[in-house]
Known about the structure:
Elements: H1 8-11, H2 15-26, H3 33-47, H4 50-62, H5 67-72, H6 84-97, H7 108-117, H8 120-142
Helix pairs in contact: 2-8, 3-4, 3-6, 3-8, 6-7, 6-8
Amino acid sequence: xxxxxxxxATIIPEAVPAVQQLLKAAxxxxxxxxxxxxxxxxxxxxxxxSFCVYGGMVNAKKAGETDERLFTxxxxxxxxxxxxxxxxxxxxxxxxxRLADSSDPVPDAVWDAAAEHFDEKQLASITLMIGITNLFxxxxxxxxxxxxxxx
Length: 151
């Protein structure tokens, strides 16, 4: 595999500080790092971004994630290793990532379940992480960035 072009952030490096600041802000909302990494990984799986799936796996392992949880995050509903809070964050991730798939893309039931486990600042953090991940996915899939340890 070969990328269509260099990563756009290397071509327009002025974008990097803004994205890094946004990512830093998303991580400052009081949500456990492991939960945010699961959110990133699940959105990246849905979007078919191998570059971000690979990076998400590496970062999740650094955050202490177990193989069982990483192997089953795509099937989190049927896997016993996720907390109710993580399940709510993953359901929100799926709804937000799949906006075009429904006339009510983020149903109240999904939002309310997340709000049962996370306060407003934490919900902001999760929502920002979902948005940032979708941005990364769209850039990397469009330019066919290659997954692997060179990232």
